[in-house]
Structure formats: C-alpha cells, structure tokens
Amino acid sequence: MLLKPSVSSQDHAIGKADANLVIVEYGDYQCPYCGAAYPVLKELMREFGDQIKFVFRNFPLSEIHPFARPAALVAEAAALQGKFWEMHDAIYENQSSLSTDFLFELADQLGLDPTQLQSDLKQDSVEERVDADFESGMRSGVNGTPSFFVNGQKFNGGAENLLDLIRSNAS
Amino acid sequence: MLTVHDKAPDFTLFATPDQKVSLSEFRGSNVVLAFYPADWSPVCSDQMALYNEMLKYFKKYNAQILGISVDSRWCHLAFSQSRNLHFPLLADFEPKGDISKQYGVYNEAEGECDRALFVIGKDGVIAWSYRSPTAINPGADGILDALESLTNH
C-alpha cells in the first residue's frame, strides 16, 4: 500500500530533513495505542534522529475518541505559532488528562498566544488540514491508529516492530 | 464468492431489534456491504470504527454502508451503541449465515462469515469485491476507489 500523497514540505516533520529513511505515522491523540507508541517513537528518534525523518499526520477517530479531533486542531493551531511538536508531545505525555480545558492549559504552558490560538482555531484552514490528513490516510489504506509508512510503503507492524527493524538494519 | 458483474442477491434482514432492511430499498444508491466475522472482536471493531468516521465520504459518493455478520440483532444493538456507530449492522442470524452463503463468503469451520467487501452499484450489480486475509482489516482505500470509478462513469 502506497502513501498518498507522498511526504511534502507541508508535512510536520522532525529529524533529518533530507533523510533516506522517512517514517510517517497516522495518529489519533486520544488513541491508547498511539499513546503507547509515543515513547517508543521518541526512543527511535533519540537513537536515529540524525538519520531519519519522522512525519505525523492526523487520523482522529472522533466517534470513539471525543478529544481526538479537538487535540488535532489545537496541535495544528499551535503549528501556526511554530510549536507543533511541542504541542504534539505535550498531548501524548498527558493523554490520560485530555479535555478541552486541558488543551488550552497546555497551550498556556507552552507559551502560545491565547488570542492568536483562539482565532486560528476558527480558521477553516485548520479544520481542512486535519480533514486532508484523514482523507490521505483513507486513501493510503490506513485501517486504524497508529499506522506507519516507511519510505512511502505501509508498514505492517507497530512502533516496537519499527524500532526493532531499524535497530537490526543499523547494526 | 460473488464478483464484478454478478447481480447482488437481494435480502431482508434485521437492522434493529424491530426493523428489517432490504437491499432493494437502496436501489438508486451505491451500497457498500461489509461482511465481518464478529461483533466485539478487535479487528472488526477497528474496521467498523473506521467506516463510522467515513460516513460523509460515503455520502459524497451517494453510497450507503451496511455492516453484516451472523451476530443477532440484540448483539448488534449493544455493539453499535458501545461504538457509537451511525450506520446499520445487519443480522445474518436466522437461517444462520444464509446471506453470507449466497455471497459466497460463509466460513463453515468458524461458523462466521469471512471479512469481505462488496461495492454494489445503483443498478444492483456488484462493481467490486474483496475478501480480506484472516484478521487483516482491509481499510477503505479499495472501497473509495471502487466508488470513485462508479461515480465517474
């Protein structure tokens, strides 16, 4: 299964910008499996961040996770203030406390401009961004979260498998 | 297993404890018929949760999604309520697996249907079908591609 569309400069990416190894995660901020994958992915980037580019795309399952979409929107709005990854990390690190109020508390802690954040959250572009990620996931064969793609190909395994694979290729 | 160009056999099954639904009621819309083995199982739960998030995309293609398994209507009701599903789950319960058999996706050994997808056009003819390997959630890209080609021609 191929990643559609492929990774572009529009994506949120960390690690090595021009890496040969590009990993994409489709994630839901309230999904417990994504929460469990988070520290593993952190470890992956700690060990291999100088060789890997990591991209996060939104795939909120709103009907079973009521805070998944609000969290995705806040993270996208945070991105407009240059703090996407800070917000992404803060949400996963506090996943058990997710609520709408708590998202604004996190924004506060990260030093985001609250007025700007509120006005950005009303922008259609923020909603459209989350929808576009979701649609790209459907098109790419995402069937649940987290789903990973390695160099544009769907990876049939979780974060642990991904870390094992990369460790064994590196050694 | 029925395939492209086969006429989709009509059926009437319980969609709620007191309401039956027939496939022929959807003539004029596209239908996505998603056979899945069992309510509550992890892969089926993920698969139904995914389709539940996609209802506006199905609507865009004038398509109705129907889940179907051999579970009873009461089991479907509890499953559907627990997952907040907004599309019907049909009970292929009595005679057990009768419709699954007609579509060629009944698994005698398991006493369940296999995980299989059918995209049926407005004319009641199957436009695309797919049987998923055991325990693999097929996602939705195949369905969307099939609906897209139906809408475009």
TrEMBL record, chain A:
Cited InterPro entries: Thioredoxin-like_fold, Thioredoxin-like_sf, Thioredoxin_domain
Pfam families: Thioredoxin_4
Domain (Thioredoxin): residue spans on this chain: 1-171
Top-level lineage group: Bacteria
Similarity comment text for this entry: Belongs to the thioredoxin family. DsbA subfamily.
Name of the protein: Disulfide bond formation protein DsbA
UniProtKB/TrEMBL annotation, chain B:
GO cellular component: a single term: cytosol
GO biological process, one term: response to oxidative stress
Coiled coil spans: none
Gene3D superfamilies: Glutaredoxin
Record domain Thioredoxin: where: 2-152
Role according to the record: Thiol-specific peroxidase that catalyzes the reduction of hydrogen peroxide and organic hydroperoxides to water and alcohols, respectively. Plays a role in cell protection against oxidative stress by detoxifying peroxides.
Full protein name: Thioredoxin peroxidase
Source organism: Siphonobacter curvatus
